[in-house]
Amino acid sequence: MSRSTERMERGAFDGLSEACLPLPAVDHDPAFDAEVPQHPDPQSSPGASRHVGPLLKWRYRRVERYIDDHLEDRIMLADMARIVGLTRMHFAAQFRVATGVKPHEFLLQRRIARACGFLRDESLSLVEIALKVGFQSQAHFTTVFKRIVGETPNRWRRLARLGADRIDPLRAGAQLRC
Is this prediction's pTM over 0.85? Predict the structure, then answer.
């Protein structure tokens, strides 16, 4: 005997309306599926897609300054949105329209650009540089650096020391010229 049946026998459902009682098991009727109205595609209905304008210049400058001032800290989307007085979703949408990249990608690019400057200082280890620009580990720093610049930080440092301080941005995966 199931628990619900035991409770019913003991009066556990006394005082509850019929709607609250467990429903009896029924077989699925495939004809029912055809009767369910289908909701129109939200993109095709009028007024569903809303135009998102770009982030205003003063807001962009404020976020850019905040990122540069707090690069070594953990910077969240909510932090960037809060300093310009927008919700996270509105900020992210407007930022992407204004810059062409997501806020997180922009943050990573700023961190890598700052890291390029630190890589010229031979006295700093890669771990120190990674921490100075806000990465939690050298491994993550190296992965992101290679994806954005096209070379590992160590190889980029060696090339910079040899005088080839500008890695060809057309190399596979390169998005940023240091």
Answer: no
